[in-house]
């Protein structure tokens, strides 16, 4: 991993501060031009309408400048679209540890998912219900566990 890649990968998601943009899977590429020293970072937004992307762009540029790359460009690429499958295993573990239910893997195309089982991150019970489509941020939904009656955030699966 290059220094530029490490700097960009260390940026945390502004909405879910326990996870980096690398673990979230939205950091697509970090290219360094050896001659000019210019760095081009490619990111793919998570949820449409998430205001976090402006913050992420600014944070990436700041992290690269601090690592000695003042000339950085952040490109946004929408294709292929980000999906929750891109969250790394380490990222999922961090989400669970923070009490955020990691999204289920996307269903196989052509297969109808009968139940969207969201497990309670506190007690592990699958007996949960959605309380509100929007939790603490537009990207998360608020759920409640029927077993321990604790509310929790669920990162919406895409
Ligand atoms: Zn529970």
Walk me through the structure.
With 158 residues, the protein is of the alpha/beta class. It has 2 domains: 80 residues, Fe-S cluster assembly (FSCA) (GMP Synthetase, Chain A, domain 3, 2-Layer Sandwich); 57 residues, no CATH class. The strands form 2 sheets. Strands 4-7-6-5 form a 4-stranded mixed β-sheet. A 3-stranded mixed β-sheet has the order 1-2-3. Strand 1 and strand 2 form a beta hairpin. The two termini are 29 Å apart. The structure holds zinc ion. Zinc ion binds next to loops. The site of zinc ion (ZN) has 8 residues, from loops.
Number of helices: 4
By CATH, the architecture of the largest domain is named 2-Layer Sandwich
> What distance separates the N and C termini?
29 Å
Low-confidence stretches: 111-115
- Spell out the CATH superfamily of the largest domain: Fe-S cluster assembly (FSCA)
Strand residue percentage:
15-25%
Briefly note the CATH topology name of the largest domain.
GMP Synthetase, Chain A, domain 3
Return the domain count: 2
Q: How would you sum up the global shape?
A: elongated
Quickly give the structural class. alpha/beta
Please identify the top-level CATH class of the largest domain: Alpha Beta
Give the ordered list of helices and strands. Answer: HHEEHEHEEEE
Numbering strands along the chain, what is their spatial order in the largest sheet?
4-7-6-5
User: Any idea what the radius of gyration is?
Assistant: 17 Å
The whole-number mean of residue pLDDT values reads: 83
Task: Characterize the biggest β-sheet.
Answer: 4 strands, mixed
Q: Strand tally, please?
A: 7
| Ligands and ions found | zinc ion
Q: Approximately how much helix is present in the residues? A: 10-25%
């Amino acid at each position: 991993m290059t220094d530029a890649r490490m700097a960009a990968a260390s940026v945390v998601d502004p909405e879910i501060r326990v996870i980096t943009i690398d673990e979230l899977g939205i950091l697509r590429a970090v290219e360094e031009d050896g001659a000019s020293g210019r760095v081009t970072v490619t990111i793919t937004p998570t949820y449409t309408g998430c205001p976090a992307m402006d913050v992420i762009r600014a944070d990436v540029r700041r992290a690269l400048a601090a690592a000695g790359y003042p000339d950085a460009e952040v490109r946004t690429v929408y294709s292929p679209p980000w999906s929750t499958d891109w969250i790394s295993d380490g990222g999922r573990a961090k989400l669970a540890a923070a009490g955020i239910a990691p999204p289920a893997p996307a269903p196989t195309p052509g297969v109808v998912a009968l139940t969207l089982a969201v497990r309670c991150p506190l007690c592990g019970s699958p007996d949960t219900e959605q309380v509100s489509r929007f939790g603490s941020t537009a990207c998360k939904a608020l759920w409640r566990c029927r077993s321990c009656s604790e509310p929790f955030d669920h990162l919406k699966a895409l």
